[in-house]
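Page 37, continued from 36.
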């Protein structure tokens, strides 16, 4: 099983005002201490923009970059996303980063609100996905679409429109899917062959329901602890892992427990990832040999 970390598990996020942003040296050192050998890139500016400098920096921590989150406006007929996506794919190729994780951005800076998308917007979004997939062949990268709270692809109907209207593979984010109303285990049952990348989260469904009802914003829910270490929430992680394994999934499992850090919140993120890694390795029958216990 190929496991990777993600800077968002240490509160590092592209959203302005998200919370305390830890220095990359601390985040990468903690990943190394946990025994991780791979990570996603994190938001723009977290790692050096030069692919060669980024690879050199990660090499120093015994890490490689395996994917990166690329929010891009796909639904606006007056905006062409292809130049920025091609630039990302070129940088990923030059940096030997395997997976482009697209999200259908609203164009705003947060994930707390989104507009309704008319039929013309859906036509544009799906057309752009087809164009991007065609261009991806030139760069030899895997391009996925990440259903994500606060984007244009969030709820079950929207996930199905992407599945039915395009050939784009999915980034299966177990947390964002559940919060948006899709059962990720059920999605694996019927569409495992469309999954090319996985973000593993566990979720408190009571808080998820409050987000769906509008009682809590997404950011407020993250601050309240909507994401839990694997095995402590309501996502059917064993069923998802088993279903993907039975379908022959051979991609990455990225450990993600999004957090918003306040002053002095240093110890929690790494311990949450440690717990999730141990849980995941226990599911596949392996002992947690690579993850040292707390000092």
């Amino acid at each position: 099983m190929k496991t990777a970390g993600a800077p968002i598990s240490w509160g590092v996020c592209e959203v302005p005002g998200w919370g305390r942003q830890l220095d990359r040296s601390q985040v990468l050192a903690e990943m190394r201490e946990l025994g991780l050998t791979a990570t996603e890139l994190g938001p723009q500016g977290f790692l050096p923009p030069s692919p060669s400098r980024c690879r050199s920096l990660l090499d120093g921590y015994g890490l490689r970059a395996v994917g990166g989150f690329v929010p891009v406006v796909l639904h606006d007929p007056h905006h062409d996303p292809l130049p920025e996506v091609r630039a990302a794919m070129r940088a990923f190729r030059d940096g030997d980063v395997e997976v482009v994780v697209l999200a259908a951005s609203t164009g705003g800076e947060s994930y707390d609100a989104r507009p309704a998308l008319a039929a013309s917007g859906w036509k544009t979004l799906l057309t752009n996905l087809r164009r991007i997939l065609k261009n991806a062949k030139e760069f030899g990268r895997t391009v996925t679409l990440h259903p994500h709270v606060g984007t244009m692809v969030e709820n079950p109907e929207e996930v199905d429109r992407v599945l039915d209207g395009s050939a784009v593979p999915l980034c299966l984010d177990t947390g964002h899917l559940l919060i948006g109303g899709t059962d990720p285990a059920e999605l694996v049952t019927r569409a495992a062959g469309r999954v090319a990348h996985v973000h593993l989260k566990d979720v408190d469904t009571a808080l998820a329901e409050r987000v769906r009802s509008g009682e809590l914003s997404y950011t407020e829910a993250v601050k309240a602890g909507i994401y839990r270490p694997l095995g402590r929430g309501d996502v059917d992680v064993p069923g998802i892992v088993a279903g993907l394994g039975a379908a022959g999934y051979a991609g990455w499992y990225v450990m993600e427990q999004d957090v918003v850090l306040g002053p002095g919140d240093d110890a929690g993120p790494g311990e949450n990832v440690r717990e999730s890694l141990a849980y995941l390795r226990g599911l596949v029958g392996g002992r947690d040999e690579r993850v040292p216990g707390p000092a």
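The radius of gyration is 18 Å. Flag for discussion at group meeting. Confidence is low (pLDDT under 50) at residues 286-295.
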